[in-house]
Amino acid sequence: MSVTDDPAVTVCFVVTIDGIELGSFNTCEGLGCEVVLEQREEGGNNGHLWQLPTRLKFSNVKLSRPLTRETEKVAKWFASMTGGFSRKTAHIEARTGDGKKVAQWGLLEVVPVRWTGPSFNPESPKVAIETIEIAHHGYVMEG
């Protein structure tokens, strides 16, 4: 394995939605898809069920990070939805600790699902974490 092929051990995820950068996040969960199968029985054939692919199902993507000044960007993005919104294209870029791009995913027709702010409790001092969750309708890979 060459030095340039080393896996990204330390990564951050930079999120951009239609050119508006929401900043970098420490965790990213839910990138993936699933083929939904429909089972059909064939008369006279008791040996198996037919597994027929019907559609692709995309899971929601959750991104988390410690509270930063970039939180305002997320708040503005969610606030812009109050008067209605249009579906946007998002890009999630995985970067190494020194900022080199490792991989990129494009998400089609992004819909915001949830923003969860930090919980403040003086009895349990923890890092203040925020999480955003977005739904999408497929991937676009740009070369």
TrEMBL record:
InterPro entries, per database record? CHP02241, Phage_T4_Gp19
Q: Which domain of life is it from?
A: Bacteria
Gene Ontology molecular function terms on file: structural molecule activity
This protein is called what?
Answer: Phage tail-like protein
Origin species: Streptomyces zagrosensis
